[in-house]
Amino acid sequence: MLLDWLGSLITPAARDVRRLGYVRDSIWLLSRSRRCRAAWRPHLDLSRAFVVETIGGLPRRHTAVVLGSGLLDDVPLEALAEAFRSVVLVDLVHPWPARRRARRYRHVRLVDADLSGSIDWLLGRRSDLAPALPDLCRSPDVDLVISANVLSQLAILPLDTFEARGRVPPDLGARIVRAHLDGLAGLAAQVCLLTDVEQVEEDRGGQAVACEDLLFGITMPEPDRRWDWTLAPFGEASRKTRLVHRVRAYRDWTG
Ligand SMILES: C[S@@+](CC[C@H](N)C(=O)[O-])C[C@H]1O[C@@H](n2cnc3c(N)ncnc32)[C@H](O)[C@@H]1O
Question: Considering the chain, what percentage of its residues have pLDDT values greater than 70?
């Protein structure tokens, strides 16, 4: 707890981003990823391997953009840095372990951006969602955009914030998810999309005791690959159950 608080304190971020809880969530993610290292390993390995395979099939490798780069746990940074002349890591929060890894490469840069399009709305600067992919994704130099397990996360804090204010705009979660998917589909670059789509709570007998749609009713087409990610093994969220996320991976997302 104390370590999390210290971690939040030293993580660089814009004041509004911190105030809305993004830094706290990033530190919680970091702590959980370290606690659940063994349970997360297969998912992280599969995610990185999928991106490496995608890189291998590209005809040109000028610039790669990673959306939701976060801890860089599911991102094969070394392979990207070797293959591309330029790599851009986009997130609202770049925690220190990711910053240190990125610093090893002069052609890897960090960009702070809100991919949900909702922060200005939450802060009262707009009256609705804004288009949310950073303009740099549309540069003709960009050959690959990777959406790195960020899609299901985009609506969480906006929903929490509106809920705390007592009014949640209708369909907010689905609109945020749809906007990200449509934004990606409209890019000229190849888009590699990794996302969890469903959370299943399983008991020790392997029976599902609860399910949650992480994409707010948006249905996804058949993926190139799918696997399970044990987000919370037995003992992490509860002694009797574990949380398993169904992950889908698309090599060339076109909507
Ligand atoms: C589950 S993590 C993704 C995993 C990440 N690729 C990694 O390897 O650590 C979700 C990431 O989404 C980021 N995120 C959540 N909402 C965001 C937003 N509105 N804009 C940009 N990034 C956001 C979080 O900061 C976090 O780093």
Answer: 100
